[in-house]
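Worked example 3 (structure in, sequence out).
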């Protein structure tokens, strides 16, 4: 066992151990508070809804244990188990050029991993989500969605893999810098194209009808100097009973999207407050900051890959005998989450700070009380736990815990 092997195994089992420990803490906290609502919600949410949220959270945690185990087994099977060696040998045996071999290797690996994870997706959709009344999808919709995803993977993944591997092969020692430029441009292109060309392949987006809600939203957008390509309602209820609202797109392609389920749950004043929160993210340039973080992270990551790509210990330390560009890229993508897992609390903390800033903005541009009412309704409708474990929440959650967030917004009313 070389030093890198020991380093990798240590991080892998440490990360898995922490994930299980945090999940057990979360499960214990939710079960312990199942019989009683937090004081802030005692007169706002029925006890049976709170208990449903607790049961739903516990069920997802139990499924998550299997997901943790499966992900670890897949990683070990591909590396020390010889999976990458076997797949690489199979493609090498066809006698194709290194560029085509690498491209087909990468795409086939992603397809295989998707097939391995498919049973868990089926269980989550048609057993867990159905049990708690959230699943609206049918077998036909599920199958068609996966076929579309496969087609998109082939249409986008094949040429992208080809370009990346070509740059790695032909751009010398600074290939990683060229790949970073291409990857950054591709990310921006996808953000711009997604709402117009990709999302409509899966859902129907209808312009928001004229009326009180549209008038309120247009007035809010005008006050905030926000321009978009339109306000749309998406048929999210075709697949799920969960509710959401979001911005999508980039530049002139920005869109405001509401799930049709949220339109049935919230009144116009509450929808306006939710949108004001989302506009707070825009005003505080959270999207731009997240993009910058993503670009910096990918720059560091690719520079690191550029350093280890010709190091024999990198391959042998992960149980791989074949040393090639596509194998190096694959190994790096597989093991990177293991080494970056422990920065998750830092990222979550930054995201929660953004949420407070957006709530603060919403309290000035709309009715903070209405936002509280909207959040309470969404907590209930989405069966979100109101009693998360503090350590678990600090490690993972991009939003403040429900009680903390409501208390923060309440302080804005009092002031």
């Amino acid at each position: 066992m070389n030093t890198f092997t020991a380093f990798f195994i240590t991080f892998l089992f440490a990360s898995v151990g922490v994930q299980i420990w945090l999940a057990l803490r979360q499960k214990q906290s939710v079960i312990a508070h199942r019989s009683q609502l937090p004081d802030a919600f005692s007169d706002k949410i029925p006890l049976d809804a709170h208990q449903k949220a607790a049961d739903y959270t516990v069920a997802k945690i139990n499924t998550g244990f299997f997901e943790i185990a499966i992900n670890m087994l897949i990683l070990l099977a591909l590396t020390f188990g010889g999976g990458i060696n076997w797949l690489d040998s199979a493609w090498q045996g066809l006698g194709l050029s290194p560029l085509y071999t690498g491209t087909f290797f990468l795409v086939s690996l992603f397809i295989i991993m998707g097939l391995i994870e498919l049973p868990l997706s089926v269980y989550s959709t048609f057993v867990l989500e159905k049990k708690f009344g959230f699943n609206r999808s049918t077998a036909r919709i599920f199958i068609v969605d996966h076929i579309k995803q496969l087609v998109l993977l082939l249409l986008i993944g094949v040429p992208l893999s080809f370009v990346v591997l070509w740059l790695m092969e032909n751009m010398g020692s600074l290939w990683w810098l060229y790949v970073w430029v291409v990857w950054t441009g591709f990310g921006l292109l996808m953000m711009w194209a997604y709402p117009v060309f990709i999302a409509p392949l899966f859902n129907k987006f209808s312009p928001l009808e004229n009326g009180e809600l549209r008038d309120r939203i247009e007035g809010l957008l005008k006050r905030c100097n926000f321009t978009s390509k339109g306000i749309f309602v998406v048929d999210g209820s075709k697949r799920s009973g969960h509710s959401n609202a979001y911005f999508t797109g980039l530049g002139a392609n920005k869109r405001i999207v509401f799930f049709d389920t949220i339109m049935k749950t919230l009144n116009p004043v509450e929808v306006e407050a939710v949108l004001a929160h989302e506009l707070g993210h825009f005003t505080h340039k959270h999207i731009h900051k997240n993009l910058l973080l993503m670009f910096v992270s990918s720059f560091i990551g690719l520079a690191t890959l550029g350093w280890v790509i010709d190091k024999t210990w990198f391959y042998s330390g992960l149980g791989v005998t074949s040393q090639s560009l596509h194998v190096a890229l694959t190994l790096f993508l597989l093991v990177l989450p293991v080494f970056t897992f422990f920065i998750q609390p830092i990222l979550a903390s930054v995201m929660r700070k953004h949420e407070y800033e957006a709530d603060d903005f919403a309290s000035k541009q709309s009715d903070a009380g209405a936002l509280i009412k909207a959040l309470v309704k969404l907590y209930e409708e989405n069966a979100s736990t109101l009693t998360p474990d503090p350590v678990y929440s600090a490690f993972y959650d991009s939003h403040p815990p429900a009680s903390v967030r409501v208390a923060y917004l309440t302080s804005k009313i009092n002031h």
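Notes: The CA atoms of residues 250 and 298 lie 20 Å apart. The chain has two domains: 3-198+288-346, 201-283+355-414.
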